[in-house]
Amino acid sequence: MSLRNLSDQGLIADTKMWNEKEEHCTRQFLRHINEVNRRRLFCDDKTGSLFKYIRKNFNKSDSETSRRVLAAKTLRHVPCADKALANKQVTLTNLAEISNLVENIKSKKKKNEILGSIKGKTQIQTREFVDELTGKKRATRSKTHSHSDGSIRIHLTLVGQTAKDYDFIKEQLSNNRIYKPEDIIGHAINPKAESMRKRIMGIGSRKSKVITNSRTISAAIKNAVMIRSGNKCENCDSKYNLHFDHIIPHSMGGASAIGNVRQLCSNCNARAAIVALSQTKMDLFINQS
Ligand SMILES: [Zn+2]
Known about the structure:
The chain contains 13 helices and four strands. The chain has helices at 8-39, 50-57, 62-77, 81-86, 92-97, 99-103, 108-118, 123-134, 160-173, 181-201, 219-229, 266-277, 279-286, and strands at 143-146, 152-155, 242-246, 261-265. The strands form two sheets. It has a two-stranded antiparallel sheet. A two-stranded antiparallel ribbon has the order 3-4. α12 runs antiparallel to α13. 21% of the residues are buried. Bound molecules: zinc ion.
């Protein structure tokens, strides 16, 4: 039946009905992506994150995907948010705005209070509420462009303590010569990167000897694995939150040798553990909220 043949009342009633259905489907979608996340199933798709999995497999924009992934995270931490969403007391956007806040709070009572505080609020009011609670000043959104020659162009605004620290380092360095912003950033992050590399490699640790029958992975093995992987997750190519993983778990007799050690991101590492050791066992470590 063509919509043109509907009565005015019929058209309004139908529009309302389809909106109800859309809201119901969105809530079901959030529940389903949370279960996909619990199982880390997106790692089987080599996408490395729930966000990338949804972007790749469903017809959604970056902002639509981000809103759903963040709102789903809020539902994991505050389960009664689902009821508030069904009762139209909160919106998807509001739930997305509080996701990082509720993730970092342990008390269930406090999480529920935060949910109660945003009921009926607009997105801007919710954002102001979050900023007030966290004491944060929101910086202008940074822009980053990676170029094919390996350089990165960043347009950013520093605020608060970071801006003061930047000025301080600039003053300290500028006694002898004029430093460009990239020199100052390099000065600040190079030592940090070096210490992180050493920590990943196990350098400086007393446990860094070459022992292949130990659970400990030696610096030499880690180095060889990093050269093989290009310092990326060997399943999804992610460069973030990398871990060294025993392919055959050490508890099942797997050696700490190069053939049995791989570099995985935290999500792919969790997925491998779920497959090897069971979902129930791994829920105790990776899916607590
Ligand atoms: Zn990965």
